[in-house]
Amino acid sequence: MNNYRQDFPMLKHDYIYFNNASTSLKPKCVIEAISDYYNNYSVNTNRGVDSLGFKVTEKFESVRQLVADFIGSNSEEVIFTRGTTESLNLVASSFGNMIINEGDEIVISVVEHHSNLLPWQELCNKLGASLVFVPIKEDGTVDPEELKKVMTKRTKIVALNHISNVMGGINNLLELSKVVHQFDAYFVVDGAQGIVHEKVNVHDLDIDFYAFSSHKMYGPMGVGVLYGKKELLDMMPPVMFGGEMVDVVHNDIATYKQTPYKFEAGTMMVPEVIGLGAAIEYINQVDQTKMNAHVKELRKYLIDKLINEISDIEIYNKDAIDSSLITFNIKNIHAHDVASVLDKEKIIVRAGHHCAQLCMSNLEVASTIRISLAFYNTFEECDKVVEVLKKAGDYIDVLFK
Ligand SMILES: Cc1ncc(COP(=O)(O)O)c(C=O)c1O
């Protein structure tokens, strides 16, 4: 995998980048695809009848097909959004608002990112429904048998992450989706982390909605995807209104285009969508299975070293063996201080509550440090972080003297 490092211009700057769950680095081909758009055909989609307008629309729609092939859906089931957050908000405010009534229940877990908690919390508060929390295992995943226990005839939606951005465990979506559908509820999956580290086939997994962001999968920021089953998207009202999503407009009423276009009002993030297409082609070319295998090996190597060599470490997700991330604290040192020490050595990690405050409460900590790996990380980088962490206590003593 080391050969691919040259594809990432950011790696030239000698950082050890261990914050990939926050956002991944971007390969040259993604940057070049965006610059090619601005240099050579930077016009708007759908609006023109000219050859440039035609070219850009064709390119934009070809990315929709690439995404569909990547996740095992049809292209009309792929809606472009600004990212996971917007995708989940769209499901809640359109689909959720349509099917939830007073007294209904929405099941989530305490390890959800705020993006998969707050839209449901708001919806419940608005409509008089309740949030129900399904218990989680130590690696942050949900046991389908535990899910069964909290499901009732009032459960309308189950919204869970594919992979928690703090705990790293990989949910068994197939088994969970069977339980959800057994109770005639709908399954919404926050795939922000899952899309990078697992091969997804939304049709085979029988998922109703799957949300993800391009920027965590080597693509640009500002674009993401909401996959929805066609029959559900057809029923859902748009929540944003304006240009390009309408069919016929009268003084007092308008009709809207078919899905996915009725959900894509206004000028879209065209260069970012094109960049996402380049990122998917890149992943396909490198091979996602190989990428994931390398990340798992790295994680195993690193966690063994951390456990054996750092006596004061407290690791919160030891059990998440197939995960790409390690969440921990060094006893008696604040997570931010540890991150600052690492930063001095050009090692970038994430410290804080990771937009998952309920998860922090569940762990009974205010914050943690998270090392999240990508396929371009190396065993040598793992050695280096352990070496610096060994000295973290000494550094901090010096810093605060
Ligand atoms: C599990 C999870 N869900 C949702 C999000 C939100 O993604 P975005 O900020 O790209 O909308 C993140 C981002 O860290 C995440 O890790």
Structure description:
42% of the residues lie in helices and 15% in strands. The mean pLDDT is 95. It starts with 15 loop residues before the first strand and ends with a helix. It has 401 residues and is α/β, with parallel strands linked by helices. A seven-stranded mixed beta sheet has the order 2-8-7-6-5-3-4, sandwiched between helices. It has two domains: 2-18 and 287-399, Aspartate Aminotransferase, domain 1; 29-285, Aspartate Aminotransferase, domain 2 (3-Layer(aba) Sandwich), CATH 3.40.640.10. It has helices at residues 28-40, 51-71, 84-99, 118-127, 144-150, 173-182, 194-197, 202-205, 230-235, 270-286, 288-309, 335-344, 357-363, 379-390, 392-399, and strands at residues 16-17, 78-81, 105-108, 130-133, 155-161, 186-190, 209-213, 224-228, 246-249, 254-256, 313-315, 325-330, 347-348, 350-352, 368-372. The protein is globular. The structure holds pyridoxal-5'-phosphate (PLP).
Explain briefly what this protein structure is.
By secondary structure, the chain is of the alpha/beta class. The protein has two domains: 2-18 and 287-399, Aspartate Aminotransferase, domain 1; 29-285, Aspartate Aminotransferase, domain 2.
